[in-house]
Design goal:
Number of helices of chain B: 3
Strand content of chain A: under 5%
Mean pLDDT of chain B: 90
Order of helices and strands of chain B: HEHEHEEEEEEEEEEEEEEEEE
Structural class of chain A: mainly alpha
Largest sheet of chain A: 2 strands, antiparallel
Mean pLDDT of chain A: 92
Number of strands of chain A: 2
Shape of chain A: globular
Order of helices and strands of chain A: HHHHHHHHEEHHHHHHH
Strand order of the largest sheet of chain A: 1-2
Distance between the termini of chain A: 62 Å
Helix content of chain B: 10-25%
Helix content of chain A: 40-55%
Strand content of chain B: 35-45%
Low-confidence stretches of chain A: 1-18
Number of helices of chain A: 15
Low-confidence stretches of chain B: 1-21
Structural class of chain B: mainly beta
Radius of gyration of chain B: 19 Å
Shape of chain B: globular
Oligomer: heterodimer
Number of strands of chain B: 19
Chain lengths: 420, 258
């Protein structure tokens, strides 16, 4: 207070606005794009917020459901303000290490996000690129651990190996907590849009969402939570395990390795594996470059729809209603709040780094199940026992070829950046 | 959205009504869509750098109109109320056992909108001499994205119903887009090139039907002979036993399209 008092003559206006009192605790931000897309009315928005708070608590006081596999003690260690109660033990790890890029809500919109390329991951869809599981499943704890330990080479995501196992465990749990919270939020929004009656033109509903008092609403909410939790619980059983007989032995001769690399090159340029289509003739990533990943595509599509809406309102014969103008303004603000979408650049395979790790098994998993949320498709079977486009033996040949490329090779003779 | 419990219940019901022919009676719903107003200009897609696609010169698929502006690719499906038990016609066994084919042909998804039941096999084919991949941005079932060798194929099945038609795309050729409708019950269809549609063998009684087109989303406030579709493109219709409800020629005004 003393300092405030001394500064008063200089900062009267500022203090009149901000005051010297303690700031409000941070809140989770609502998923504006989803709410606006579904044209959810204010009453339902508040009810969704209340339901989420009931289930997941706040950034300072997190909760997990009774049925959840999440370890609340670990979540609590990572949550809240950075603080220390016991010498040598730091709490509030997420805010200390992650929130400045990934944001308090895990929406990938922390204060430094705009400076980074690629942008920090938005956890709220529960989609993670670098994992060992079948495409549609979330990552395992080990997958998330590996990312925290190694970082993502070639991006701003650093290694947090020095934090030690215990702190990494807490952060893995908190990332899962934010992901599940985000997934429940989106599911709830689309469920309410589908199941409950409301009128976006008047902004009202006679069908409130009140899971605390209404049995039907409680059942809806429980189903949403169950579906999200089930997927995460199943992840550990959905790891892609390579066929032991197809794994190349460690004692291969130079000639055997060279033959495998050659076979991998043929696959790379052939129309079975199709790698050349996106990674390009040179494998510098000079093929198809105009697509988006899911996170950026959502912003692109939301933006396009907003533009169409603006044009339509501008060209309408009757003057637009106050509600229409408000929705447009809210959509435009939501676009402004997002980072400018970027195309998904196919990876430069000769650049020396591979985002998802450079062990053979990492490359195997990328090839087998693709890269979730990105344009990179799966080449292996969609589930155990099914047939994929490439056999395990062929995938390992491609692994050898990719590893040979990242070890500093130049494009084969005659292969130029034809598509540029 | 459905819990595993209600999925189980539906499965039991599905099996029961397939194997035991009950006194259940059936009716049909039909109609024809016509586009009303100025047709928006939608250009041909840019086929990019793939020689096969350049030669194929694919047409736009987002708005398909006949010579008399007959509107194709309207999706119509029965939307059972939560917890409602829906009888399924004996033909369902045959329906469910046959795979649904989604072909990549001349750099176009054929059909543009694919209808599949939960548990049914979706056979994604590539009839082109170039590589494709098919990515489905499904919500309840999670994402899929599989590479397709030239003349290759991939089989998939889905456990969960999707709430709306979900986008399908090819990352190698991003101009290729389509939709996939995944429903637990077989009462769904897409309007044909001549704008007509018919859903047969619907259990007699009152049902809610959903109408959707990719450029409008819900077919909002559109008039039919059975009344006006609501804000979310839905309408309650009484399906008579052994009868047909004909919604007549349904004029879809241009201003609901993007």
């Amino acid at each position: 207070m003393t300092r405030c008092h001394l500064l008063l003559p200089f900062l009267t206006l500022y203090l009149a606005v901000a005051g010297c009192t303690k700031s409000d605790p941070p809140r989770f931000h609502a998923n504006r794009m989803t709410l606006l897309d579904a044209e959810i009315v204010p009453e339902h928005q508040q009810q969704i917020g209340a339901a989420l708070k009931g289930l997941f608590g706040t950034p300072d006081e997190p909760k997990v459901s009774e049925s959840s596999d999440l370890d609340i003690e670990l979540v609590e260690k990572a949550a809240g303000p950075v603080r220390s109660t016991t010498p040598g033990e730091t709490l509030g790890l997420y805010r200390q290490h992650c929130a400045h890029c990934h944001g308090i809500t895990g929406d990938g919109l922390g204060p430094t996000a705009a400076l980074l390329d690629p942008y920090p991951r938005d956890f709220r869809e529960g989609k993670f690129k670098f994992k060992s599981t079948y495409l549609k499943y979330p990552p395992t704890d080990d997958d998330l651990h590996r990312i925290l330990e190694n970082g993502i080479p070639g991006t701003a995501m650093p290694s947090f190996k020095l934090l030690g196992e215990e702190q990494l465990d807490a952060l893995v749990e908190y990332v899962k907590y934010l992901a599940q919270r985000g997934q429940v939020e989106s599911e709830l929004v689309y469920l309410i849009a589908d199941e409950l009656d409301y009128d976006p033109d008047t902004g009202t509903t006679d069908d409130p969402f009140e899971p605390a008092t209404d049995d039907d609403d409680a059942e809806l909410l429980a189903e949403v939570v169950e579906i999200v939790e089930e997927d995460w619980a199943e992840a550990e059983d959905q790891v892609v395990v390579p066929d032991a007989e197809a794994i190349p032995p460690e004692n291969r001769t130079a000639a055997q390795l060279a033959a495998s690399i050659d076979a991998g090159r043929d696959l790379f340029y052939g129309n079975k594996a199709n790698c050349v289509k996106c990674h390009g003739n040179t494998a510098y990533g000079d093929g198809q470059q105009t697509d988006y990943d899911d996170w950026n595509k959502a912003v692109v599509e939301f933006h396009e729809k907003t533009e169409v809406m603006a044009e339509k309102l501008a060209g309408a014969k009757a003057p637009p209603s106050a509600n229409e103008l408000q929705l447009l303004a809210q959509r435009q603000a939501a676009v402004e709040a997002r980072l400018k979408p970027r195309n998904a650049d196919p990876r430069n395979l000769r650049g020396g780094t591979l985002h998802g790790g450079r062990r053979p098994i990492d490359i195997y998993w990328r090839l087998h199940q693709g890269v979730t949320g990105s344009p990179m498709p799966a080449h292996g079977a969609p589930r155990p026992g099914a047939t994929g486009t490439l056999s395990d033996a062929e995938i390992w040949q491609l692994v050898d070829y990719v590893m040979a490329m990242t070890n500093g090779s130049t494009p084969p003779e005659g292969k130029t950046m034809a598509n540029r | 959205m459905s819990s595993s419990l209600s999925r189980f219940a539906l499965t039991v019901l599905f099996v029961a009504s397939c194997s035991i022919v009950t006194a259940q009676e059936w009716g049909s719903l039909k109609g024809k869509f016509v586009f009303e107003g100025d047709v928006p200009a939608i250009g041909k897609p840019d086929p990019g750098t793939d020689k096969v696609c350049i030669a194929a010169a694919p047409e736009q698929q987002k708005l398909k109109l006949g010579d008399g502006k007959e509107l194709a690719n309207v999706v119509i499906y029965l939307r059972p109320g939560r917890g409602d038990e829906l009888a399924v016609h004996p033909d369902c066994e045959k329906l469910a056992s046959e795979p649904v084919v989604l072909d990549n042909k001349t750099c176009v998804f054929v059909p543009h909108i694919t209808l599949v039941n939960t548990g049914q096999t979706l056979l994604i084919k590539n009839s082109d001499p170039t590589g494709h991949n098919t990515k489905g941005a499904l919500a309840s079932n999670g994402e899929f994205n599989y590479t397709l060798a030239a003349n290759g194929q991939q089989e998939l099945t889905f456990d969960e119903e999707e709430r709306l038609p979900m986008p399908v795309s090819c990352s190698i050729h991003p101009f290729m887009t389509g939709y996939l409708v995944v429903r637990e019950n077989p009462y769904m269809t897409v309007s044909a090139a001549d704008g007509t549609f018919e859903i047969k063998n619907i259990p007699a009684g009152e049902h809610e039907f959903q109408f959707w087109h990719e450029l409008s989303g819900y077919l909002k406030d559109v008039n039919t002979t059975s009344g006006e579709l609501d804000r979310t493109g839905r309408i309650e219709i009484e399906i008579p036993a052994n009868g047909v409800v004909d919604l007549g020629t349904i004029e879809v005004p241009a201003d609901i399209f993007e």
